[in-house]
Amino acid sequence: MQSAARRRALLEQVRADGYVTTGGLARQFDVDGSTIRRDLAHLERAGLIKRTRGGLFPAEPAAAIDVPYDVRRGAHLAEKTAIAQAAAELIENGQSVILDSGSTTYQLAVALRRQKKDVFVVTNDLMIAVCLATDPTIRVHLTGGSPVDTAYTLVGPSTVTELERLHADWTFLGSEAVHHRAGITNINMVELPVKQAMVNAAERVAVVAASASFGKRALVPVCSLDAISLFITDDGITDDERARYGSRLHTVTAAV
């Protein structure tokens, strides 16, 4: 296969799968690693793909594809850390908190450990539960459910049932797509009932999301913006987006 045709086929494969590994592409197209790397470098220079360690995904809004957890966890890390710190400062001693699954809420769990607050945390995220399990100042409850293939997330009827029985002070909801008309949307349907139960279970709901998530729409609607008490993001949000959220928007500056 000529290089131009192979690159077109590569791009089609990446767009079809959402996330692929470099080694998998080399095997699929029966070429050596150096050839694949040259092809991918060409596509990246053209702005058609984004590469990360060991893999790549289309150069499209992150909300359009279900990127593996380990990849998401490293993206916009400085912004997520600053957002998480601001969110942790909202939580008072003795309060109950529901943490949605995700890389930003994981950083919120890390921030809670550092602040040594006496709080009760409910989560469906296995990594968050592990992070908090050894902290004596935090009581953590991991919901039941079945794990999602691409994330350390528990979902299913038992997860929803547990959440429906709760009334927490806060829910901190992660989102890769926040839109002023579409509201909070999600990239897959399997997490939808869990996220909606989390929203309904709390006195106040805060969305914690990097500025890159704003102005994006994903496949499945979770809730309208009316259900959200506060939006916490980094100061990379555009002026147009900033104006749409009014006093509910809180921005932070990421460490350089």
Secondary-structure map:
Elements: H1 3-17, E1 20-21, H2 22-29, H3 33-45, E2 49-52, E3 55-58, H4 69-74, H5 77-88, E4 96-99, H6 103-115, E5 119-123, H7 126-133, E6 138-142, E7 146-147, E8 154-155, H8 157-164, E9 168-174, E10 178-179, E11 183-186, H9 192-200, E12 202-208, E13 220-223, E14 230-234, H10 239-243, E15 249-252
Parallel strand pairs: 4-5, 4-9, 5-6, 9-12, 12-14, 14-15
Antiparallel strand pairs: 1-3, 2-3, 7-8, 10-11, 11-13
Helix pairs in contact: 1-3, 2-3, 5-6, 6-7, 8-9
Describe this structure in words.
The chain has 256 residues and is of the alpha/beta class. It has 10 helices and 15 strands. The protein has helices at 3-17, 22-29, 33-45, 69-74, 77-88, 103-115, 126-133, 157-164, 192-200, 239-243; strands at residues 20-21, 49-52, 55-58, 96-99, 119-123, 138-142, 146-147, 154-155, 168-174, 178-179, 183-186, 202-208, 220-223, 230-234, 249-252. A 7-stranded parallel β-sheet has the order 6-5-4-9-12-14-15, with helices on both faces. Strands 1-3-2 form a 3-stranded antiparallel β-sheet. A 3-stranded antiparallel β-sheet has the order 10-11-13, with helices on one face. Strand 4 (96-99), helix 6 (103-115) and strand 5 (119-123) form a beta-alpha-beta unit. Keywords: DNA-binding, Transcription, Transcription regulation. Residues 3-58 form the HTH deoR-type domain. This is DeoR/GlpR family DNA-binding transcription regulator.
Give the domain tally: 2
**Would you count the extended β strands for me?**
15
| CA-atom Rg in angstroms | 19 Å
- Class derived from helix and strand content: alpha/beta
Gross geometry:
globular
**Helix count?**
10
Classify the beta-strand content into a percent band: 15-25%
Task: Trace the largest sheet across and list its strands.
Answer: 6-5-4-9-12-14-15
| Overall helicity | 25-40%
Low-pLDDT residue spans: 61-65
Q: Using the 3D structure, state the CATH architecture of the largest domain.
A: 3-Layer(aba) Sandwich
Gap from first CA to last CA? 45 Å
Secondary-structure element order, N to C: HEHHEEHHEHEHEEEHEEEHEEEHE
Mean pLDDT: 87
Largest sheet: 7 strands, parallel
**Class of the largest domain, according to the CATH hierarchy?**
Alpha Beta
By CATH, the topology of the largest domain is Rossmann fold
